[in-house]
Automatic annotation (TrEMBL):
It is a multi-pass membrane protein. It is found in: Cell membrane. It holds the Pfam family AA_permease_2. This is Amino acid transporter. Signal peptide: none annotated. The keyword Transmembrane helix applies. Its main location: membrane. The keyword Plastid does not apply. Keywords: Cell membrane, Membrane, Transmembrane, Transmembrane helix. The chain crosses the membrane at residues 12-42, 48-69, 90-112, 132-151, 158-178, 198-218, 230-251, 288-313, 334-356, 368-391, 403-425, 437-456.
Length: 481
C-alpha cells in the first residue's frame, strides 16, 4: 500500500474541532434526559449534582497523566496505543479488542436508540408514524455519507448540533434559576449521602463516556502535543460543570429533598427533564427540545462511529485485522473501508433485534450500549494503569503530574468499573434475557485478545512487532488533504 492509502488527514482539527467531536459523542441533551434522570431516580436523588462534580474531579485527575502521555505518544489507536506504550504489546492487544468491541457495540445500541426516539419525536410533533428501524436506517446512511467526507466535515456538523442542544438546556436552566431559584439543599449531607451514592457516581461517570476519544484524533490534530491535552481538559471540565448545573436546575425545580421520589415516578416514561421543560419553557419550546433530542442522538451516533472506525483502522493498519481496514481516502484521509464495516456491523445487529421482535430500548440499547459502556470504562482503567507504569518505568520526576494525580484518578476509575460490573443490569437499564450476564463477555474478549497475541508472537512476529513500531509514527508522517 502507498502511504497515501494508509494515512489519516493532517492538521485538520484544532481544539474546537476535537472538543465538538468529543462532546457530541457525550450528547449533553441525551445525557440529561436519560442518564441524569435515571441517576436521580436510582442513585441519590438531589445528591446527583455532587456526584457529577465528584466524577469530574476523578476524571480531571486522570487527565493530568493522560495529558502528559499525549505529549509522548500520538496515535489513531487512542487508549489501545497508550496501553501498548505503558504495559506492552500483549496487554495492548487485549485493550484493543476491548476498545473495538466496546465501541462497536455502543454504536449498535446508538442506532437503535436514535431510531426509537426519532420515531417517537416525529410521531409526537408531526403525527407521522413510522417503524423505528426506518429512522435507524436513515441515520446510518447519513452517518456514512458524512463520515466519508472527512473528519473536518463531521466536526462542523457536530459543532452546530452541540450548540443547539446545549442552548436549549441553558434556556431551561436559567428559566428555573430566575423564576424559582436554585436550591442549596442539594449539597446538604443528608441529601448527598442518601440512597445509593455509588450508583449515582456510576451514572455520573457514564455521562462522560466519549471524552477519551480525544486521543483517537491525535494524528489528525494541529500540534497534537498541545491540542490533545487542552481538548481533554476542556471536554471533561465542560461536561462536568454543564451536567452539574443542569442537574441542579432540574433538582431545584422538583425539590431537592423529594427529587428521588419524583424522578422514580417518571422513570418508566423517561420524561423527567421534559416535564421540567414543559413547566419552565412551555409547550412549543419543549417540542423543540424533543426534536433537538433527535439531533443529539444522531450527533452522538456520528461521533461514536468516528471513534469506533479509528480503532478498526488502527488495528487494520498494523495487520491485526485485515489490512483493507487500514486504507484511507487519499483526498481527505477518511478511513475508507473501516467506516463501512463498522456501520454494517451495527446495522446487522439492529436488524437482527428488529426481526426477532425485540424492543429497541429495553433489549437492543440495554444490551449493546450497556456492554459498550462497560467496555469503554474498562478501557479507561487500562489506560490509567498504563500511564502510571510508563512514567514509573521511565523514572519521571514530576511526581504530582505522573504519579499522584493519575494514581488517584486510576483508583477512582477502578471504583467506577467495579460499580459497573456489580450493578450492570441497573447500568444497562434492563434485566431481560442475557443482559445481566454480559460482563462475562468482557472476560471472553480479553482472553481472545490474549490468545491472538500469543499466536501472533509465534506465527506472525512481524505483525506482533508492528504493534509497538506503529507507535513511533510521528504526526508529520500523516498525509494532508
Amino acid at each position: 500500500m502507498s502511504r497515501d492509502e494508509t494515512s489519516l488527514a493532517k492538521n485538520v482539527l484544532g481544539v474546537p474541532g476535537i472538543v465538538f467531536l468529543v462532546l457530541a459523542a457525550v450528547a449533553p441533551l441525551t445525557g440529561m434526559v436519560v442518564i441524569a434522570a435515571i441517576g436521580i431516580a436510582v442513585g441519590n436523588g438531589g445528591g446527583m449534582v455532587a456526584a457529577f462534580l465528584l466524577a469530574t474531579v476523578v476524571l480531571l485527575l486522570f487527565a493530568v497523566g493522560y495529558a502528559q502521555m499525549s505529549k509522548v505518544l500520538t496515535s489513531a489507536g487512542g487508549f489501545y496505543a497508550f496501553v501498548v506504550k505503558g504495559l506492552g504489546r500483549t496487554p495492548g492487544l487485549v485493550a484493543g479488542f476491548v476498545a473495538m468491541l466496546g465501541y462497536n457495540c455502543f454504536v449498535a445500541g446508538a442506532i437503535g436508540t436514535s431510531g426509537f426516539f426519532t420515531s417517537t419525536a416525529i410521531d409526537d410533533v408531526f403525527g407521522l408514524k413510522l417503524d423505528w428501524i426506518f429512522w435507524s436506517a436513515l441515520s446510518v446512511v447519513l452517518v456514512l455519507l458524512l463520515s466519508r467526507r472527512g473528519i473536518a466535515v463531521s466536526a462542523k456538523v457536530l459543532g452546530v448540533s452541540l450548540i443547539l442542544e446545549v442552548s436549549i438546556l441553558l434556556i431551561m436552566d436559567f428559566s428555573v434559576l430566575f423564576r424559582h431559584g436554585f436550591s442549596f439543599a442539594a449539597f446538604s449531607p443528608s441529601v448527598m449521602f442518601q440512597g445509593a451514592s455509588g450508583l449515582a457516581l456510576l451514572f455520573a461517570a457514564n455521562a462522560f463516556i466519549g471524552f477519551e476519544a480525544t486521543a483517537l484524533f491525535g494524528e489528525e490534530a494541529k500540534e497534537p502535543k498541545r491540542t490533545i491535552p487542552r481538548a481533554t481538559y476542556i471536554a471533561i471540565g465542560f461536561i462536568g460543570v454543564f451536567a452539574a448545573f443542569t442537574t441542579w436546575a432540574v433538582v431545584s425545580a422538583i425539590g431537592a429533598e423529594q427529587a428521588q421520589d419524583v424522578a422514580a415516578a417518571h422513570l418508566s416514561s423517561g420524561d423527567l427533564v421534559l416535564s421540567v421543560a414543559q413547566e419552565y419553557l412551555g409547550g412549543p419550546l419543549t417540542k423543540v427540545m424533543l426534536l433537538l433530542l433527535v439531533v443529539s442522538l444522531f450527533a452522538a451516533l456520528l461521533a461514536l462511529h468516528n471513534s469506533a472506525t479509528r480503532y478498526l483502522y488502527a488495528l487494520g493498519r498494523v495487520g491485526v485485522l485485515p489490512r483493507l481496514l487500514g486504507k484511507t481516502n487519499p483526498r481527505n484521509g477518511a478511513p475508507r473501508y473501516a467506516s463501512i464495516v463498522q456501520l454494517v456491523f451495527g446495522s446487522v445487529v439492529a436488524v437482527a433485534f428488529r426481526l426477532a421482535g425485540l424492543d429497541p430500548v429495553a433489549d437492543l440499547t440495554a444490551s449493546m450500549t450497556g456492554f459498550g459502556t462497560l467496555g469503554i470504562l474498562t478501557l479507561q482503567l487500562f489506560a490509567a494503569v498504563a500511564i502510571l507504569v510508563h512514567f514509573r518505568r521511565t523514572r519521571d520526576r514530576r511526581i504530582v503530574k505522573t504519579l499522584v494525580a493519575p494514581g488517584l484518578g486510576a483508583v477512582g476509575l477502578g471504583l467506577i468499573v467495579t460499580l459497573a460490573i456489580l450493578n450492570f443490569p441497573t447500568l444497562a437499564g434492563s434485566s431481560n434475557g442475557v443482559v445481566p450476564h454480559l460482563p462475562w463477555l468482557l472476560l471472553i474478549v480479553a482472553l481472545a485478545g490474549l490468545a491472538l497475541a500469543v499466536w501472533l508472537r509465534r506465527f506472525r512476529p512481524s505483525v506482533y512487532a508492528a504493534l509497538e513500531s506503529d507507535l513511533e509514527r510521528e504526526p508529520s508522517d500523516v498525509v494532508g488533504q
